[in-house]
Every structure is written in structure tokens, then in C-alpha cells.
Amino acid sequence: xxxxxxMFESLEDAEATGGQVVEEQRTDDSAFRMAEPDPELGDQAxxxxxxxxxxxxxLEDAIACYQMTLKRPRQNPEILARQAEFWFRLDDWDSPFSxxxxxxxxxxxxxxxxxxxxSSRANRKNAA
Length: 128
Fold this sequence. Notes:
- By secondary structure, this protein is mainly alpha-helical.
- It has one domain (2-12, 47-127).
- It is 56% helix and 0% strand.
- The chain has five helices and no strands.
- The chain has helices spanning 2-17, 50-67, 77-89, 99-105, 110-127.
- The longest helix is centred in the middle third of the chain and has 18 residues, at 50-67.
- It is globular.
């Protein structure tokens, strides 16, 4: 569960530092509220199954590919970033591991999460 909460904190930290890792925690998270878990799904605790852990790992890997922050990229980082962006933008509800279905399974609102992820690289480019 802690990994789930830290995923978006690391996304925000990478955005703020231009992709560099930071050690300190952000105290004001008001700008990040749109990518929080969907409140309409209730207060039930998310049951961490192996499938949900895999979905979380896929989402984390896609974010790292998109931001080009992989420590050991498997291939050209630009290609990985383009593939990740395509996956984020694809409005697919049929594939079990589509961005939309992974967000739904992790109780994230897909549209807000997509916007937050896609804007993170644009904000980083504008800051540079």
C-alpha cells in the first residue's frame, strides 16, 4: 500500500526537480489532488492481490519510461517515452491491462491521472 501512495509522490518530485531524485517529502500536496484515488468507489480498503501489484508495477514502469527516468533502459529512451505516451493516451477499455482498466482497478480516476502524467513532462520542459 505504501508503494501505491509513493508512486504519485515520486511523480511529483520528478516533475519538481526535472527528473532528479529528491530525498525530502513535500508538505503541500494540494496541486496533486486530482490524481488521488476515486472517492466514488467508497472507503473500502483496496485488497492487494498479485494482479493489482502487477498493475501498479506496469503503471510505475510506464511513468518512468514516459519521464525517461529509468536507471537501466531496455532500449532507446525516446522510443520508450513515445510508447508510454501512446499507452497513456489510448482510450481502451477492452484490454485488461489498458491504462483505463489499470486506473480503475487501482481506484484512480483515469482522465485526471492521464492529464496529471502527461502534464508532468510538459511542466518539466517548461521549467528547464
